[in-house]
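User: Could you check the structure of this?
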Amino acid sequence: MGLPDAPSFTTPSAPTAFLAVLLALLALSDLTAASLPEEIGSYYWSSQAPVRLFFFFVVTAYTYVFKAGGIASAWASKSGAHTAGVGDELKNSVVFTWGFVEVICWFWIYVTLRDERRETVARAAARRKAQEDML
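Assistant: Sure, the predicted structure tokens are below.
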């Protein structure tokens, strides 16, 4: 795809150590949320899935569109001189691959949660109808 490799991830550094701690914190919070009761967990994940899906879609699209020689690289540097931007370090194959896999996973989770919500509403309606019929 023409994205550069990220050789700086092979040697330990302060930013990669911070990133490891941040990812560990996110993993711990997700494991804690996964152990919540089904009703509460459903509300939590139903709010998290679209937000995370959108975030990772933006990161992946930015990495691909603004890469060197990418679709929008001509728009970004019309003067011909490249100035270092805030997100230049994000434009590599590691970030793109991670973001792309996350987009796939979170889309799958989002679709699954929608199906579960539909089934839950149908069960609640059937339960309500059964209670009305009993009275």
